[in-house]
Specification:
Helix content: 40-55%
CATH architecture: Alpha Horseshoe
CATH superfamily: Ankyrin repeat-containing domain
Structural class: mainly alpha
CATH topology: Serine Threonine Protein Phosphatase 5, Tetratricopeptide repeat
Number of domains: 1
Distance between the termini: 36 Å
CATH class: Mainly Alpha
InterPro entries: Ankyrin_rpt-contain_sf
Largest sheet: none
Radius of gyration: 14 Å
Strand content: under 5%
Length: 110
Amino acid sequence: MSWPQRLVESRVTNVHIKAAQIPNPGLKGKKKEEYDKRTKEELERAIQQIPPRTKIHDLCDHRSATPLHYAASNGNLALCEVIIAGMGKDQLFSVDASRKNASSLCSLQE
């Protein structure tokens, strides 16, 4: 099965993909700032493409994970903030198939 077919089957959206960006620890200074800014802008554009009035359960993948779950599981607080600002707080209360919400995934990163 090809990657595009797997993405469709797993119900992963472009927002999930952008939210899954891992902070690059190898970058320093201006390069890190540019990378972080570009990553945030890409996520913001992906969020803007979501049709109005889309419910959060329509944005869950095959594990019931939201884009916020993806950002939180990577410990990327900056992307979590972008997601909440752009999509609302509903995702904070959404649990995945493992019965974990995004804040519990963040706490597992510490």
